[in-house]
Specification:
The strands form 2 sheets. A 4-stranded mixed sheet has the order 1-6-2-3, with helices on one face. Strands 4-5 form a two-stranded antiparallel sheet. A hairpin with a 2-residue loop joins strand 4 and strand 5. It is elongated and about 160 Å long. It has 5 helices and 6 strands, in the order ααβααββαβββ. By secondary structure, it is α+β, with helices and mostly antiparallel strands. About 30% of the residues lie in helices and about 10% in strands.
């Protein structure tokens, strides 16, 4: 038996059981109290049943323990019913209407390149060297070289030279140059896609499924900033990020903002995204820059 119960039905069932139990307690208390007063005033005659436990209960008509079996069975039945309802509790995914945002991803996005300061002008060239003439009195004449006889005979005493001290070890080689990061592509043969539609083979159907999954993720997690709602701020925010070779999202930043905290909210949602399917160039995964437009519209 396939039984699905929402949280609202489960809560109302619990409230109903509690209300019925409390009502039953008050009703039985009122009935027993009224019977007790009638017995004391002589309006009701005590019926002897001949039961061996009658001596312990003077008036069996007001003995609350005589209904303990009935109350126990009712409690077991209520507990069983609540347990079945609890196990049948079903949570439903929140449906997000993205029909008004489907054309957002098709718009051409013009991202203004960052403005960089102009480089300073190059320094002026150094002045040419000045050649000065050296006066003749400063020119020193070469001295005559005196040759010394270094021949060795039997009687020549040769002194032992001092021991040669080992030279210090050479310095370690410099560290290898740092590996430059891989090139970031803007357009590749297979653009990166949001996960969830890998089983679809048709390209057009897969793109429509990817766009729908991406928009459902964005607009089910985004929260319209209060200051933007109060001031009626609407428009489009563009977030640019890099999809790495493993599908992770890096270098996410705001490329276009409308203010009032909308850019920061869109950036927060982008950083929450799971890993994408990486883009490919010639069959190999590469780093791809992706520009994502997110529209803020008051309902």
């Amino acid at each position: 038996m396939d039984l699905s119960v929402s949280a609202q039905v489960l809560v109302w069932s619990l409230i109903g059981v509690l209300a019925f139990v409390l009502g039953l307690i008050f009703v039985m208390r009122y009935v027993l109290q009224k019977r007790s007063e009638e017995l004391l005033q002589g309006k009701r005659q005590h019926k002897r049943t001949g039961h061996p436990l009658e001596e312990h209960a003077k008036y069996s008509e007001v003995d609350a323990f005589s209904l303990s079996g009935t109350f126990f069975n009712f409690g077991m039945l209520a507990a069983l019913a609540l347990t079945i309802l609890a196990f049948s509790w079903t949570t439903y995914e929140k449906k997000v209407d993205i029909s008004q945002y489907l054309d957002t991803l098709e718009e051409d996005i013009e991202v203004e390149p960052p403005r960089t300061a102009e480089p300073p002008p190059p320094p002026p060239p150094p002045p040419p060297p000045v050649i000065e003439e050296v006066p003749e009195e400063l020119i020193t004449e070469e001295e005559d070289i005196e040759f010394v006889d270094q021949s060795v005979e039997d009687e020549t005493v040769i002194e032992r030279p001092d021991p040669v001290v080992d030279a210090p070890p050479p310095p370690p080689p410099p560290p290898p140059p740092k590996k430059e990061p891989d090139e970031i592509f803007k357009v590749v043969e297979e653009m990166p896609t949001f996960p969830g539609c890998e089983h679809i083979t048709d390209k057009a159907a897969r793109k429509a499924c990817v766009d729908q999954k991406l928009l459902e993720f964005i607009y089910s997690n985004i929260k319209y900033p209060a200051i933007a709602r109060e001031n009626g701020v609407e428009g489009m925010v563009v977030i640019t990020f890099v999809v790495e070779k493993d599908g992770s999202i890096t270098d996410a930043r705001i490329a276009r903002d409308i203010g009032a905290g909308c850019g920061q909210e869109a950036l927060r949602v982008v950083k929450m995204m799971p890993k994408w399917n990486p883009g490919k160039q010639r069959g190999r995964p590469v780093r791809v820059q992706f520009n994502l437009p997110i529209r803020f519209k008051l309902e």
